[in-house]
Amino acid sequence: MTAMREARTITIIGGGTAGWMTAAALGRFLSGPDWTIRLIESDAIGTVGVGEATIPQLHLFNRALGLDENAFVAATQGTFKLGIAFDGWRAPGHSYMHGFGTVGRDLGMLSFYHYWLAARLDGMAADSLDDCLIAAVAGRQGRFARPDPARPAPAGGHNYAFHFDASLYAAFLRSYAEARGINRHEGRITGFERDAETGDIAAAVMEDGRRISGDLFIDCSGFIGLLIEREMQAGYESWQHWLPCDRALAVPSADDNPPLPYTRAMARAAGWQWRIPLQHRTGNGHVFCSALMGEDEAAAILLANLPGRALADPRPLRFTAGRRRSVWVGNVIAIGLSSGFLEPLESTSIHLIQSGIERLLKALPSDRGSDAERAAFNAQAAAEMEQLRDFIILHYWANGRDEPFWQDRREASLPDSLQQRIDLFRASGRLADGQGELFTPLAWQQVMIGQGLLPDAVHPLAASMPKAQRDELIAMVRQVVASQSAAMPLHRAFIDTNCPSTPRERLAS
Ligand SMILES: Cc1cc2nc3c(=O)[nH]c(=O)nc-3n(C[C@H](O)[C@H](O)[C@H](O)COP(=O)(O)OP(=O)(O)OC[C@H]3O[C@@H](n4cnc5c(N)ncnc54)[C@H](O)[C@@H]3O)c2cc1C
């Protein structure tokens, strides 16, 4: 039997971050006469346009496309991100970091944090792991350098991601995709034609009567889910009972100069506020729960807490935390906001686009795909979203604030999967290391400890280490972290040397 090869057409619906990331990746990996890739977008409808903070996994995507990192940062007014500072989540005035990279130095069979926990339970005065990781210390000092892979942890043990202007990123990827033969079609889709036999989508019908066909359709149409929901009725599983924030107001402000090399997530009375520094401006937003706070009050809080003058009126966005019940139905695969939404507390949405694309390429069907392929694909997508959901819920649950919203979050029931993780940690200090999970114990330990969750008992090997030896280990780590951080250039200087946006469009505050 010979493998059948016939030319196939993939039609991407939507030209936001999801659409152009998908187009760039397909242009890179599905080139040649066997494939026709098209993208339809409507300038009149526009994009969500927020989504400016990322996580380190984006390196893999950029590398797969062969992008030059400095060129990419310069083209998107980008800055570097060492982690996220969570201000006021444990209590007003408190702050801890979820930094990228290693924490301390592992010893023997145990991760460093076990020794830290043993010392903490013995009375060590510290309320987060911050001074044991380079990403946190360098971040607080406003310093940045790329890690040196030759250095063992903790020296060199940091990682980083990016902040960027989402619309410039989409434009950057559009040039990349169009240079690789992706055809862009501008206009509003008003309907779809279906195959009478299979029920699959045969073509998108445009407002002006054009008909754009495809064998496989990738729904990147945003929250509306034009194909996956409106046409294919995949259904939506709401997680609002766990994540009740359902509104955001986004506003750019003048330069937060010099730009911090980390995102800030600041707890507010009924939600939280983000601050994302770019080269030419700062992205700000207030995520809040509309059942407890009106839009006017939310806007007033946001505008009173900007690092510089507002450059526009706050833009409202509505959402429901949750996931599409199936992200692959018939010949439609949803990627991006059309597949579900988690608030940007851990900057996971762009990563979900990336992993959706990776899943698509790995599972690319030879024709319309079988039910078995769809089921496996949908199960993987669901598991991934659920892991991220649990991590985000943890931030809300482990809070120490007094407002009614935060009291409710503390008392809310948790998904079983999260409850089990917390129970294990409480009982033993251990963290489940799920295969292939995005957030590893390095992330969980920082958030749990940073928000004041300590175990009742620690690992016996850490507990039995002589106190002097344990103290020496922690002191060594702190000293190396401090000296490595201090040796880094200032973030602004690193950008100016390596990847300034040209022309520099910095706005005076
Ligand atoms: C408040 C908020 C903050 C966020 N912050 C972050 C963050 O910090 N980090 C992060 O990773 N992610 C973040 N995100 C998520 C991020 O914005 C999205 O994941 C990303 O922008 C992808 O969006 P999208 O491409 O799926 O949809 P969209 O940007 O909405 O694009 C949809 C596309 O579909 C097209 N379209 C729709 N209907 C039609 C039609 N009828 N005809 C033709 N074209 C059509 C539109 O024109 C557009 O091109 C945030 C999201 C929100 C809401």
Automatic annotation (TrEMBL):
SUPFAM superfamilies: FAD/NAD(P)-binding domain. Keywords: FAD, Flavoprotein, Nucleotide-binding. It comes from the Bacteria. InterPro entries: FAD/NAD-bd_sf, Flavin-dep_Halogenase_NPB, Flavin_halogenase, Trp_halogen. The keyword Zinc does not apply. Coiled coil: none annotated. GO terms for molecular function: monooxygenase activity; nucleotide binding. 7-chloro-L-tryptophan binds at residue 81. Pfam families: Trp_halogenase (PF04820). FAD binds at residues 15-18, 337, 350. The active site is at 81. L-tryptophan binds at residue 346. This is Tryptophan 7-halogenase. It comes from Sphingomonas lacunae.
